[in-house]
Amino acid sequence: MGIFCEIYINKPEDEIFRPGMVVSGVIRYTVDKESTFSKITVSLKGVGRVEIEKEWRSDREKTYVKTEHYVDIDNVVTKETVTLPIGTYETPFAFVLPINIPHSLRCYKKFLTEYGKCDIIYYVRIKFDSPGWKLAKRCRKEFTVAPKLNLIPVRLPTVPTICGEQKTLTSIFSSRKHIVDIKANIESCFISPGGAIRFNFEVNNNTNIDIKAVKTKLVEIYSFYTSSSGADLVHTDKVKNTDYKTTEIKSGTCESFDIEMKVPQYIFTIESYATIVKREYFVWIEALLPIPHRNALLKIEVQIGDIAGKDTNTDYVDFKIHNDAPPSYWEVMSEES
């Protein structure tokens, strides 16, 4: 077989890596026959890759791909050609994660005939270069980087803010304007994970029809990018357990409501350090109108994160350190990067 390799990564106290932390450990590799290498390199890598597939014609699909690199640090163990006899060897390593990097992510979204997949991964790798035209041997182990939320820039108001939306309905039987007026007062547009979005809203039904109901919910929007021309794929989904529905609002009446929307502990805005993906959140307040009218919709953007300067050690449920059980030979040894 030539080389068998195992990479052991030292875990932090809370078992979660964050930007700016040290990634250290030891690589143990066994040579089962005398082998010659022109160079041995230990590296820290961070790579993001987005793939978008769209139906081009009924019988064909088109795929768009973009890759970007966040960390690329090489530590050359031996620069000169060396011959290793049969035996087991150890190489310690220690790397510092940069501050301005995105967190680990594995995301797959599908909508009708389109799908988007985004992976942001970090790993330690050892590479054995052989003389001549022989393929290099590589062994790597991934680890998870959780977000350091206090690096998210605050760009939305953190004080009470008033938002509004009006929809004018067409009526062939009346010359006066028929308007559905939605006004909302949100306590803050910047919310911590696990916190609450508090707002009140008023719906003035100045029309000759009844509004069937008003629905509120928190919406998550993923945008995947493979070019600089804009979002190549946008996927919208409701955040579970955040919806609320009112009763009917009669013609010519005005109703107001107070809402406290609980934010799940594990969600947060993604908008920094990666150009291939963005994740945004909006509060939707939607007045449901009878056919043929389109619903009146007020969208309020919110940022979910921690304000700069406030440290966080939140243990996010979707950020778990990978299993430390030794991987199989075929999992760790390859000729790929």
Automatic annotation (TrEMBL):
The lineage of its organism: Eukaryota, Metazoa, Ecdysozoa, Arthropoda, Hexapoda. One of its GO terms (cellular component) is cytoplasm. This is Arrestin C-terminal-like domain-containing protein. GO terms for biological process: protein transport. It comes from Pectinophora gossypiella (Cotton pink bollworm). Keywords: Sensory transduction. The keyword Nucleotidyltransferase does not apply. Belongs to the arrestin family. Transmembrane segments: none annotated.
